[in-house]
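Q: Two folds, back to back.
A: First:
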Amino acid sequence: MPVMKILKKNLAGEVTWQYDGVELQREENSITVEAFFNRDDTPFQEIVLKRNDRFVETFYTDKWYNIFEIYDRDDGALKGWYCNITKPTVIEDGHVSYVDLALDLWVSANGRRTVLDEDELDELGLDDLTKQKVYDSLQELDQYFESKNPPS
């Protein structure tokens, strides 16, 4: 399976984080990769993100978000879904890149949804059209999780 370099970028197009993932599935408008959390154990919401937790990450070229399904490194249990609101992903040979738009949605394994980083979104100074895309995407994600049918 091909190894992909995942590139998270800011609005200026600068890479702010990068890591490797293994391609699991490729569709016309998406790619799903497997990656492992590469930071020290970090308390987050009601869980702890642990080094080597398994992330199954789906990136879309036609949607303004990505979805990370997170599994515990020790027992494989689903911890939840971390959804980044982003500009549509660019998939190229060996690379997956996205521009992060700050706003995030956390969905715990029990289905509880929490919107994160609204203050950071305000600091970006986005134009009205882009802000509308951000909130439309958040609403779309909310509907997917409300229906208990996360996008595939």
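A: Second:
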Amino acid sequence: MTNKIKLRENYSTLVIHSTDNSFGFGYRKNNTLESDELFIKKFDNDLCNNLINDLNKFISKENLQKINKLSVSIGPANFNASRLIVVLARTISQQVNCPLESFSSFKIMAKRIASKNNILTNKKSFWIYKKLKRKDFITGKYEICHKEKNSSDLVIRETVLPKVVKELESKELSFEAKYNDKEDLKELLDLSNKNLLNSNVDSWRKVLPLYPISPIN
């Protein structure tokens, strides 16, 4: 039996996600949905310390050492939370010596938005946007690459990484970003497991927070 087959039969993934006002952890064994464990919490005044404490409560040190893959959302979301969870993910990846993969928050919610709005046509593209306090927008572009019989099997590619724009393209399909803690954690687990065997253990070096504007805006 090859190492890859053994890995498929006995592996676990951990994901870390944050939104504008919450963060969460997800854990899955052997890509079995029934094994999913989720933790979701609203921000408090000491996110830095409580993030570590809550992780320790969520997963044992023994199980953490057995993690085969770690994935993290890098934003756009709350700047401080994005920065903290990326630092935490990079640290775990180094210590456990497991691959780290990152996804934008918009990429994570893209399939949910496409399914909700019945965007099932192959090669159909759409934008996801978030209105800033000023007049600008953060927006990313997504494309349906592959469609199975069920909308849950949609494969979506991020063609434009979230960035700041002055205005939206009125002629193109666009939807407002909507975070969903539970669904986004599950999708992040799905994305993480799909790429499990194609990840580099040194990949943590390339993972950085994504925030198109400065923290004060």
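Q: And?
A: The chain has six helices and nine strands.
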